[in-house]
């Protein structure tokens, strides 16, 4: 690897951490992207714990990463709810009352649990 490769690999860590839920998962995903890092991980037992510690620190300091993950989860959940409501209304419109009732029951239970 060249020096520029090291810079590119290093820059990708922050992006990978910002798009994963935990530092441990982020480090795992990041290591798998670069064969050279897998070799370092095998050779040096301290490498992964070191990276995970750095990852936890970065994730705690970078507020936009947490906000991005929470926002993505919230938007996904709302879109899922909207599509469920739409499908339920389609069952009503098409006079598929058994499916409508089943879908409505699922929505009601889901909302009650949340």
Characterization of this structure:
This protein has 114 residues and is an all-alpha fold. The mean pLDDT is 87. α1 (3-18) runs antiparallel to α2, α2 packs across α4 and α5 (63-93) packs antiparallel against α6. Helix content is 87%, strand content 0%.
Write the layout of secondary structure elements.
Layout: H1 3-18, H2 23-33, H3 35-43, H4 47-61, H5 63-93, H6 97-113
Helix pairs in contact: 1-2, 2-4, 5-6
Strand content: under 5%
Helix and strand composition category: mainly alpha
Distance between the termini: 50 Å
Number of strands: 0
Helix-strand pattern, N to C?
HHHHHH
In the predicted model, the low-confidence regions spanning at least 5 consecutive residues are none
Helix content: over 70%
Shape: elongated
Largest β sheet strand count, sense and barrel closure? none
Mean pLDDT: 87
Q: What Rg, in angstroms, do the CA atoms define?
A: 22 Å
Report the total helices.
Answer: 6
């Amino acid at each position: 690897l060249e020096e520029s490769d090291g810079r590119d690999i290093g820059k990708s860590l922050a992006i990978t951490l910002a798009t994963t839920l935990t530092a441990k998962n982020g480090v795992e995903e990041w290591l798998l992207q670069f064969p050279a890092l897998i070799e370092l991980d095998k050779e040096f037992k301290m490498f992964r714990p070191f990276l995970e510690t750095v990852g936890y620190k970065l994730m705690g300091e970078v507020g936009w990463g947490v906000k991005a993950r929470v926002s993505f989860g919230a938007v996904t959940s709302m879109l899922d709810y909207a599509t469920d409501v739409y499908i339920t209304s389609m069952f009503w419109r098409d006079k598929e009352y058994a499916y409508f009732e089943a879908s409505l029951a699922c929505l009601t239970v889901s909302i009650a649990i949340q």
